[in-house]
Amino acid sequence: MPAIRILIIDDSALFRKSIKKILGPLDPEIILASDGQEGLDLALREHFDIVISDIEMPKINGIKLCQRLKNNPATQSVPVVMVSLFDSDSDIDKGFQAGAAAYISKHEIKNSLLETVESILSKSRFNRDRLILVVDDSSIVRHIVENGLAKAGFKVITAEDGKKALALLDTYRPDLIISDITMPCMNGFDFCEAVQSDPDLAMIPFIVMSAKTDRSYMQRMIQSGASAYICKPYNIDELVILIEKILSDQFLLLLKEKERLESERNSMVASITSLITALEARDKYTKGHSEAVGRIVSGMLSMTGASRKEIETVTMGGRLHDIGKIGVRDKILLKPSSLTAEEYSHIKQHPLIGIKILESIPSFSEVLPMVLSHHERLDGKGYPHGLKGDQIPLWARMTAVADIYDALTSDRPYRGKMSHDNALQIIEDARCTQLCPDCVDLFLKWNAKDNTAPDPMPCPTAVQRAALVG
Ligand SMILES: [Fe+2]
Q1: End-to-end CA distance of the chain
Q2: How far, in Å, from the CA of 460 to the mean position of ligand 1?
Q3: Which residues surround ligand 1, an ion (CB under 5 A)?
Q4: Fewest C-beta in 10 Å: which of 85, 176, 342, 347?
């Protein structure tokens, strides 16, 4: 992570040194300026995460410097902390009016500067990652609100009515919406209801801003799902404080929800791992098969530049792909000889049984296609649904290759394990009929990287190979 860049502007060398020392624990990159003009030039030329400025300085004082930074679109979101020896109420007021984020008396900097700077930087980082949608038919209101929010560090997009705002929501996912009520095309009521009725958008906090102070209006909007109602004319700083409060509450809620889901997922993973262990304990021949398929399929996916989350998901899907075999009777699952048509039909139920086991658990929703479709074949002769080609989900096609490779290179009750090279030959033979050619290529690419040493077993004939794959 790059160092925090802090600009300290003070005409006193002693205070510059003192402030620099106080901020040492943040390990920042500090740039010093000895008067307002030098500080302003630096702040306009380079990026800083925060500016700390004295008020009384030659050339340009701290208040004017702050005004200049806040009136410049390139620097308006950089927080400015004012410091002064004199603690004049008038200077403090003027500093806040100019847009300063905090005022600290130089008598107090030892005690409170570090904590204040840390808190401002953390808020600034939080705001910088937040996108606000402002909807109002008045271009003046849009401009004032956009400008005020940008100064607080938020990213802002605007729309002039509900219909245009809904169109923007196809592309953008704001963290908060602020909307007027009376607008052409689609008013604020209808817009709020449209947002609330879309499950993907309903969680976005919605603030209504309106000149109407009628209580019934407010109640109607709150009933429609609005988080807050703010009456025009309002002070833009009040709006910023309200937004920061709502976003911070929302962030904590989302964090708690994420922790709850994480904990639910962890306990589910523990339960499923026990189920897989129980499943594999029934059959010494398939011991470790689920783990191996998870490892191979995640190795294959990692060759595609997939995200860490996707790789974790396919690993889990690979481990779970045969979970439905829990519902297959022992005498069929462990039968050392050929299966009858009825027995084969029973074993073919295991993808559907797997889905029934997992479908009620939301965190496993993404692995269901791997469980359901890993026995589908490209030519449509697979089961349970006889899907063809691209109808078979990609991760299921990848699982099919991993599944076959591990099955071929492991002992089974009805045959010994096959050599690595022979298994590769069988996989090649099944390309385009049973297996997806792209997934076979991906497997070969992964295999070349994670190569298993070949063993000296003889190569089976084409007929033997066909029998083994089928
Ligand atoms: Fe299976």
Answers
A1: 53
A2: 23
A3: 322
A4: 342
